[in-house]
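Shift notes (night). Ran Cytochrome c domain-containing protein while the centrifuge was going.
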Amino acid sequence: MVMTQTVRRMIGVSFGLMLAITPSAFAQTDVTFTKDVAQILQRSCQGCHRTGQMAPMSLVTYDEVRPWARAIRAKVAERSMPPWHIDKTIG
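Came back to this:
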C-alpha cells in the first residue's frame, strides 16, 4: 500500500514536470491578418466585398479592412453580416 502511494506520487510529479517543461500545444499565439482573418473574409465576405461587386467597399487587403474593423465586428455581432442568403447559418 505504501509502495503504491509512493509510485503514484512519483508518477504525478513526473507528469507535472513534463507539462511544465514542454511547450503547450494550447499556447495562445498572436492573431495575424494573413494567417487568421483573411481566410474568414475570403469565405464569408469577399463574394460581395471586392472590386466590381455589389458591396460598397472592398475587404480584400489589410489596408482595405482595417478602417472598417469596428463596423465589421458590430455587423457580425448583430448577425446582419454576412447576409442570410450568402451564409445559410444566418437568418
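Helices lie at 2-21, 33-44, 62-65, 69-77. The mean pLDDT is 80.
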